[in-house]
Amino acid sequence: MSVTRTERLLNLLIALLNTKYGLRRSELRAKVYHDTSGNDVAFGRMFERDKNDLRQFGFDVETVTDHGWSEDDPATTRYRIGKESNRLPDVRLSPGEWTVLLLASQLWERAALGAAAANALRKLQASGTLSDVELPLGVQPRIRPAGQAFDDVVAAMHARHPVSFRYLAGTTGKEEQRTVEPWGLGSRFGQWYLTGYDRSRLAPRHFRLSRFTGGVTVLGKESYSPPADFNIREELDGLPELPLRTAVVDVRRGRLLGLRRRAALVPNLSAETPDGADERLHVEFRDTEVLAEELASYGPDAVAREPQELVAAVRHRLQSAATFCAVPVPGYRFADSPRGPSVRKRTSEDQLKRMLQLVPFLVHNQGLHIHDVAARFEITPAELESDLRILICSGLPGGYPDDLLDIHWEEGHVYITQDLDLTRPVRFTVDEACALLTGLETLNGLPELAEGGALESVTLKLMAAAGEEGLRAGSLAGPEVGPADSAVLHVVRDAIRDRSQLRLVYLSAQRDQVSERNVDPLRLYSLDNTWYFEAYCHSARGLRNFRLDRVQGIAPNGNPASTQVRPEEGFPAKLFTPNDDDTTVLVQLTRKGAGLADDYYAERVATLPDGGLVAEIRFGSTTWLPMFVAQHGGSARILHPVDLAAASRAWIEAALVRYGD
What we know:
6-stranded mixed sheet
């Protein structure tokens, strides 16, 4: 969509909004399109495309005809947009409700729903001002969707298109091609599940996104209708939890302290294996794929012996990783500019959506500095000025001074004096309604929020404002975000509040060792249902992030925390804090693993023809990268430095030797 088309759509929208009786196609052609080509067929196609685009942005183009005339006659048919049908109702929120809503909007740390939540929040801000709120300590949860497959399925589900994908069946262990009508997507037992109608099985089925073995293809030319009132939460509540089973795993003596910590105390727990170098552990588990991913990362330090299903799953991951490491290095080229927080490029459609939010925002926030406005919309001041220049040239047919949007900025402060009835934001899209309402539903898992009245009241207000789009939020369900060990969380939260120092006994999985250290806790946050706290570590002399489930001992040591140390700027907190001595690593990711570029804050990416990426990522410690490659089983490999790439291949090959491959 070129800039010219962006301007045309904006002018068409303003014209249709500001006509009471409607405008004929000939009037629009002459005054908005300035089309004198005489080609009625070409203009008709362009006009139909533009009407469809406006519908995609949330505006219903009405067709008006005089009594007795047919809609097929362009000479008598008029078009307009109702001023109320497309507008977001006024939503007035208290500071407590704004706090809850801000948390819900920031749950989706990346992926398409993250952008949708940000858009929805700006629409609410456009009808008023955001109250000054502070996020409560220890209540900063995030949801990490399951890679590119999540985005593709959500987009297809909301557009009601079927999807096709390769799937590793849990019952047979074979890869199969599946074509599914997606009804809902939700998280249970630490996994994302797609529920839909399987066209090959002619019945509803559940599919785990972690078992997708390739990219998702959206069948955009086909459509379907989901069951009425389908609710993915109710559907997944009926899923039985997998039975508890016992795995037999041989572990190198003195290694893998985290795995040993979870080993069940059963007879023969420490029985030596025949070669004398291993100890045999019995590990309880429910999900074969989850344990297989963990055991694959341990490489030659651990070998699964039973059950055979687990052995096969670990071997499959290792073999896939070895195969990917052996393929030729593809050609790639990084973009000249540094990478932003998302691999998704901004489009002209994004610009038009933003401008439709920008006008009502400026109306209700007169005189804000241009840098503050740009920061609120997460764009650069240069991009904002580009938007404003298009807006001040847009208006009613004729282009007289009083018919144009009147926006000016003096000494950097932006004012709007002519808004042409764009004073209220357009209603929520399905994506935006689902992002916010699913986020609010997810926050019910946090007692400190669920017990207050703000969460319930803001949910009711948004449901009323979202209308029909809000009803479709039942197609999405987030994971449980409550901490498993609330005792540790309360100790850390109290220390943050009291600015006191903690003595910490901590298991480092990467180094495979337990250490003691004094830390100054700064803030708590979560990623799905895994909770972390950011702290200044006096041993490392820097900021570090600690997982609550790896804390083996924690208590105040009687010393006050430093008053000089502050958390890293921005929300959400990052799991990795860059340092000058970090190692820059080139990682190739398949389309399935492309989301890892966001997870590890890639600084630059190069897109590959097959949908994969080459990502430039900084790591503070590189000794665990062979584990990283083995864990992701053919979705990631190291390209550079070459010694790390060689170490990864050697790690995987040594593991396969232990499995007899």
